[in-house]
User: Fold these one by one.
Assistant:
Number 1:
Amino acid sequence: MKHRHRFVTLGTACALAVLASNAVARGIWVSNNSDSGPGSFREAITAANGDTSVNWITFARGLGSIGLQSTVTFDGTQALRIDGHEATLTAAGSEAFDLFAATGGGWLEISRLILVGSHANGIVVSIPAEAGGEVRVDLWEVILTGNSLFGLLIDDSLGSPAGVLLNAQRCVVTANGTGAIDNDGLRVNERGPGNISASFKQCLFEANGADGVELDEGDSGDVLVQVLHSDFIENGFLDIEDLEDGIDVDEAGDGDIVALMVDCRLDGNGDEATDLNEDGTGSLFALFSQVTANDNVDKGLTAEETGDGNIQAVCSQIIAIGNKKEGVKLDESDGGDLEVELHNAYLENNTDDGMQVEEIGPGDVAVRIVNSTILKSKKYGLNLTQGDEGTGLLRLQHVSFAENISGPCKVKGAEVIETGLPK
């Protein structure tokens, strides 16, 4: 099966072009901070629910906080753009309800809106069972903070044929998921055959009770994730029995994971910095560049493939310091090959191995490490295993190993063809 891999960026300009081309499109202004009634946000959404020509809702400037008495729900099927102009949606009182929900399956764009203090979820996008194509959600300068459950939940638990297309740019997602376990800052659940395509640019995910971001593809689609200039800091500490990650990407069916992370910081998370898991028939492709993964309670950068598929990973200019297990860990545990390149990396003071690479099932493993430093690991600097049918190859070029307690390298089942190991 061929998969078309593509990444997306925020579609604000495209949205404006689509709306401009619609001769009957019209908008509604939110002119006050009342919970309901003329000029309120609730009234504007009610109008959009009843009139598919309503394609945009704009808040007047300076409205401040809007205390909601119950969920505002958009159930229309049309594309809708909401520009909050820095208005704040919050829960009035102690009742538990989502601040905003979208259930129609149309393209949703939200910009410059703050959603804070729900005793349930900030935003919930529920995908209808009959949805097809792609359900698209664009967020620009949205703040989701202090919501007891998810900051944002995109939910395809009904298993529609649709894929999910998510773009988030300059968003802040903090201190969500503190009211119950396993509620992330941002979660996408995809249970049908569609793909998850997610792009995060200049975003912050910090102090969320579970994962900063979790992308969960439970069927036969791919997960395509691009993360640029974004930080994942101190997420995942609510449940001390099951600590969570900075970013968690799961693909359980016949599909691939394609992950690109550039100029990101993933520090101090409760479990792993990254947790990429491809569990079915599919491969995992990852590129990490200019990424730090420091002081995480478990591992730093991790990727695992447990079905019939390959791992191809490139790690360039990464730093992994002070993680409580491995700094970098890559595992392929079924039929498939594992290819890893590490360039210009610095791994220091990780409590297990500095870097661990394992090919447990039938398949080849090839590792190339260039211009890198691995030191002060509590076990080996590099632990490489080719444990079943297949060949193993390790190339070391200008690599410095120092003060690794168990030794510089442990290599099983692989030929070292060039080495810079100390005597």
Number 2:
Amino acid sequence: MVDVPLSDREIELIQYVIDRYRKAMLFEIANTDSRDLRAYLQDREDQFIALVEKLESFTGRPEFSG
């Protein structure tokens, strides 16, 4: 594992970007007819949620608007 030194502000920015991307992805999940694409995107969403939770553990503040 590699340590990447980030400030709280940088972590919040990453969380913000992930949240905005995730919201667009949820729209895509809802509007796709492809089961494979939907499953892929849902798995990706789970990964984003896990990543945001890890980032929250560094700041101590929840930023995810899930």
Number 3:
Amino acid sequence: MIYLISGSSRCGKTTLAQFLSKQLSIPWLATDTLKSIVSECISSSDFNKMFPKSVMRRQTKKRRNMALKILKSYF
């Protein structure tokens, strides 16, 4: 099952996701993490087409390594 939590900026989405993750013993991924994974799998131009309004922060080495680790665990 996948739970999607949405809302405006600073409304508590992450806090709620972390709470539910602990209570239900399920993993959670932030949207930035998913965007990092997608950016590793497609070209920059395709990424910009898929996420035209994205304000994704510049990938740090830590975030890139996390995205690659997640990808490797599934493939």
Number 4:
Amino acid sequence: MRTLSVTVNSMDFGAPSEPSGGAHTCRRASVLCAVPTMTDYTPTLSELHRADGPLRVLLLENIHHSAVDLLKNEGFDVDAVSGALKEDELCARIASAHLVGIRSKTQLTQRVLSAAPGLLGVGCFCIGTNQVDLKAANALGVPVFNAPFSNTRSVAELIVAEVVALARQLGDRSREVHAGQWRKVSQGCFEVRGKTLGIVGYGHIGSQVGVLAEALGLRVLFFDVATKLPMGNNHAVTSLEELMSKSDFVTLHVPATPQTHEMIGEREIAYMRKGTYLLNASRGTVVVIPALAQALASGQLAGAAVDVYPEEPESNSDGFVSALRGLSNVILTPHIGGSTVEAQASIGVEVGSSLLKYVRNGATTGAVNFPQIEMPPSSGTHRVLNVHRNVPGVLRDINNIVSELGANIASQVLSTDAAIGYLVMDIEKDVAQSVAQAIAALTTDIRTRVLY
């Protein structure tokens, strides 16, 4: 075995971009990669670890043991923490981490990300990524992965269960019996068969809800800003107003974006017919809670089911305050849409595997803030990964370096977004160190490392 020492530059993303000679401040960290000297050999992940010890992983918020086991079995040093951390403590804990995994509570701000000079990647063990400063991570050359598929079924099943529960007022009846009251009533209770379910956001979860709802005999409409292929007999409508005015139940499945912030307020609720129902298991910022509470109190809506809120407690021991508490036929749950054993185990494997693929091969497929590349493993070469500012002439400069050093490129792929370029290059082993060091010295460089 021999050791390569490669310089990693982390750009101060608050500075303006300059094609060359810009006034960027950079911090430098030496990254050591153990590299086999054998010819035609594809290394195991343990051989990609740093020369000064195994890669260190910080997992927060009680991430499922499937992820912990996956990473430990690959030889990583895993520090698993049961809850979220405040920013100051998080900055201290993340300083030596190479990978970090979080769920929805941990906030990876610009300050936190900047406190981890050796950070290679971030895994969000959930669907949402709004808890991460994606722009800052991008500028630092840190891809962020999430789990867009693994909890789809769990959330969809919860929504369908809540549709039935709202139609039968099960929350109120259960609470009354627990309190010693016996109210056997049928007024205001309905079968869901033949009713109309409107789905706002027809992605992985929304479309799955449509499939399950149709099996119960519901007529399904959906609205999405993008053209989507309907599942089964689901039907697309052309506007949010049309969907809400035609539906008995409206369920929301949209991401947290500026366009979806408070998208359901007093005006949108007024589109809904009297005696209908609203469900939200997407993002807490999508619904204006006071407007929803007013519609429920006035009888405009017959019920609601809410799993996400604009402000949520940081831990299970904190109290919860909401204008929706105490209202009739309102199901309130503590952000548990994806909280099933099956979903959490699947999320652990999905995100953990994405992180492993990135560390092993440089694959960024599925990263939410990064150019997408996935090259197959290569034998007989070293793989150089380079993240740089997306300005004209960078690839020319890199290829000039390769040419001047007499290296042969076995394969090379470049992908860019508006801010950065990501280059994966397999080159001859005997010049890989020199090539990587020369690339890292370019003024456009953000991060350069050698995998094997």
